[in-house]
Design goal:
By secondary structure, the protein is mostly beta strands. Helix content is 10%, strand content 37%. The chain contains one helix and seven strands; from the N terminus they run E-E-E-E-E-E-E-H.
Amino acid sequence: MGAIDLDVRRNGYGRQVDSFETELAVEGFDDTFHGVFIRSPVVERIGPDVEVLAEVEGRPVLCRQGNVLVASFHPELAGDVRIHRRFLEGAFASDAT
């Protein structure tokens, strides 16, 4: 879609049988966020203006560029609205580019 300067590889963590869950340290959150990874893409390249907000084993899994927020995991399955709140705050921020 070209909305954010990064490249991903589909199903980078494996097939559905390789799905996993892990606690993520997310920039700006006091507590970890429960990440649910199902047939998740792996970020292979990020551009200079992309901010990495969370990683798994040194790989970006939550990134932002301007008002675009992308995740390699399913935040809707965590029972935690903090990622969605961050998305909405960024989408409507007056200084977002």
